[in-house]
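Example 3.2
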Amino acid sequence: MESIGMNVMAPEANRPFAEELDELRATRAEMKSIRLSAQQELALARQIRTGAERYQLETETKARSQAQLLILQARLATQKEIAELKRKAGEEIQKILADIRMIRITAQEELEAQRRFNNASRITTLSQATQRRASRISGKDKKAVSV
């Protein structure tokens, strides 16, 4: 009888085991679901990370491009300003050279006028000296004739 009693007890003892097995199966299914959800979250995180890295690379490339463009624009503006300054300096130099030429021409004309004045003065002085000599000589001739 004892063996029958064991058999009778066996289904009752198996019942908590079956419930535990069902719980374990439910837990296993829940774990699979959690694992699948975690894998999906990981895949999504990887996609977001890849997108962020791509965005970072695009942003860096765009920033470098804009910086290079800004540097190029600044360089061109500087070159344009330098060219304008050179042009203005060249114009000023040409004006100064023209003024110097005019001053030189005026100085040469003044020098020529002074030479002419000097020559005229010399001629006048020589003429006056010649007239005085001629007067003295003619005065001596008159005295000599009158004596």
